[in-house]
Amino acid sequence: MSNHILFLLADGFEETECVAPYDILIRGGVKVSLASIHTDPFVEGAHGLTIRADALLSELDPSLYSGIFLPGGGRGVENLRNSQAVQETVRSFMGAGKWVTAICAAPIVLAAAGVLHDKRVTSYPSTEPDIRSYCKSYSQDRVVVDGKLVTSRGPGSAEEFGLQLLALLEGKDKSEDVRKGMVAR
Predict the structure, then answer these.
(1) Residue 128 resides in a domain
(2) Distance between CA 178 and CA 135 in Å, rounded?
(3) Does the residue 185 lie in any domain?
(4) Domain of 97: which CATH number?
(5) What's the CA dihedral at 24, 116, 89, 73 to 10 degrees?
(6) Is residue 2 a contact partner of residue 31, using CB atoms and an 8 Å limit?
(7) Given this model, what pLDDT does residue 185 score?
(8) Bridge-partner residues for 9, per DSSP?
(9) Annotated active-site residue in 104, 105, 115, 178
(10) Which residues lie closer than 8 Å to 106 by C-beta, 6 or more apart?
(11) Domain tally for the chain?
């Protein structure tokens, strides 16, 4: 299966954490689909940017994707965590050994889904107490990879997160080519 990552979007998502990894993965040749967890394809970010999702999560077959991505953002994470469909999707992807990726506060969604018990993770600093007791170990590294689970700290690490994820999906050479083309650090 070629890599096809499903971005789960909820009202209140952190724009930088969504757009930077999306752009990096697309530049690297990874297919990305945006799914609204709501009944409307238009999803409003935490700072007013509205994105039109490709589809509604309720209309999709998760087996067609090689991984999922959950952006942070306080209200967005709350909406993701409160969605039974998101919880089921997270558990399904983890159980199938697919990529599960989350940034900023979004690892709270993974904790709520009960999939972190044997994993090393990171998250936005203020969410550490909410996640620490649900995972094997907590790290303050900017990006943490534990098998097919990838987590990151916040908006400031979104580019690094995207490049790391691209390296995992398509190889270090592809990630380095994209990094150079973007004039990224």
Answers:
(1) yes
(2) 32
(3) no
(4) 3.40.50.880
(5) -50
(6) yes
(7) 86
(8) 36
(9) 104
(10) 70, 71, 72, 77, 80, 123
(11) 1
Active site residue 18: no
Rounded CA-CA distance 91/75 in Å is 21
Let me know if residue 54 belongs to a domain: yes
pTM over 0.85: yes
Given this model, what pLDDT does residue 2 score? 86
HSE-up (13 A, CA, CB side) for residue 174:
16
Residue ranges of the chain with per-residue pLDDT less than 50: none
Phi, psi of 131 (to 5 degrees): -110, -35
Give the residue numbers spanning the domain of 65: 4-179
3-state secondary structure the chain: CCCEEEEEECCCCCHHHHHHHHHHHHHCCCEEEEEECCCCCEEECCCCCEEECCEEHHHCCHHHCCEEEECCCHHHHHHHHCCHHHHHHHHHHHHCCCEEEEECCCHHHHHHCCCCCCCEECCCHHHHHHHHCCCCEECCCCEEEECCEEEECCHHHHHHHHHHHHHHHHCHHHHHHHHHHHCCC
In-domain check, residue 184: no
Q: What is the pLDDT of residue 1?
A: 55
List of residues 6+ apart from 29 with CB closer than 8 A: 170, 174
